[in-house]
Design a protein that fits this description.
Strand order of the largest sheet: 2-1-3-4-5
Number of strands: 5
Number of helices: 11
Structural class: alpha/beta
Largest sheet: 5 strands, parallel
Order of helices and strands: HEHEHEHEHEHHHHHH
Strand content: 5-15%
CATH superfamily of the largest domain: Response regulator
Number of domains: 2
CATH class of the largest domain: Alpha Beta
Radius of gyration: 19 Å
């Protein structure tokens, strides 16, 4: 039996093949083991990079993709989810994220109901049930994450931060941005660091993509 003893008959479908993208081998294998306890689940791939997910999903064509919001790689989470929507449009996507990613959850919420968002402190049963809901075409948006998303709907960036980020989005390095805005390079780097923190991104490129997807720049 699975975590709550649910079978494929109770979920209204057959076997749900899951592709898992999780940062950290220990957590990835632990989550795979938990999901594999469910009678109607089969974990068909365990991956550690967003780029791997995009490639393997197109080949495996799973019914569901479960992703860590902090999964490393050249693709941001919104970009990866949109790419999966093109390459494997019938695959449901569940993103596990913490409450600090309000901006990111706002961008992902726009992709509902194909993409769902669940808090990382959810129980294994909640993860399993959320996967089933998404596969049935039902929306999934964790209440805790929804509050973070609602809080983040207003533009959290100051006018100066938006100016710096717009120039960075055009490819300008910190020194060039500093000259353009009559600032020191150190001040520009501080602005970019604050922007990265506010958007929930891990890099400048992710911050730019999240800000653009949210309409902040």
């Amino acid at each position: 039996m699975g975590v709550r003893g649910l079978t494929s008959t109770q979920t209204g479908g057959g076997l749900i093949r899951i592709l898992l993208g999780q940062e950290g081998r220990v957590w990835r294998e632990a989550l795979a083991a938990v999901l594999s306890l469910e009678e109607d689940f089969e974990v068909v791939a365990e991956l550690a990079q967003t780029d791997e997910v995009a490639v393997v999903a197109a080949r495996k064509r799973p019914e569901a993709v479960v992703l860590d919001h902090a999964l490393p790689g050249s693709l941001t989470m919104p970009d990866l989810c949109e790419k999966l929507g093109v390459s494997v449009p019938r695959s449901a996507v569940l993103v596990l994220m913490d409450q600090r990613g309000g901006a990111l959850s706002t961008a992902l919420a726009r992709l509902a109901p194909r993409v769902g968002v669940l808090a990382t402190d959810s129980t294994p049963w909640q993860v399993a049930e959320s996967v089933r809901q998404l596969v049935r075409g039902e929306p999934v948006l964790d209440a805790k994450v929804a509050v973070a998303a609602l809080t983040a709907r207003g533009n959290p960036l100051t006018d100066r931060e938006r100016e710096v980020l717009r120039l960075a989005a055009d490819g300008a390095p910190a020194k060039e941005i500093a000259m353009e805005l009559f600032l020191s390079a150190g001040t520009v780097r501080n602005y970019l660091s604050r922007v990265i923190a506010k958007t929930g991104g891990r890099t400048r490129i992710e911050a730019i993509r999240v800000a653009q997807a949210s309409g902040w720049i």
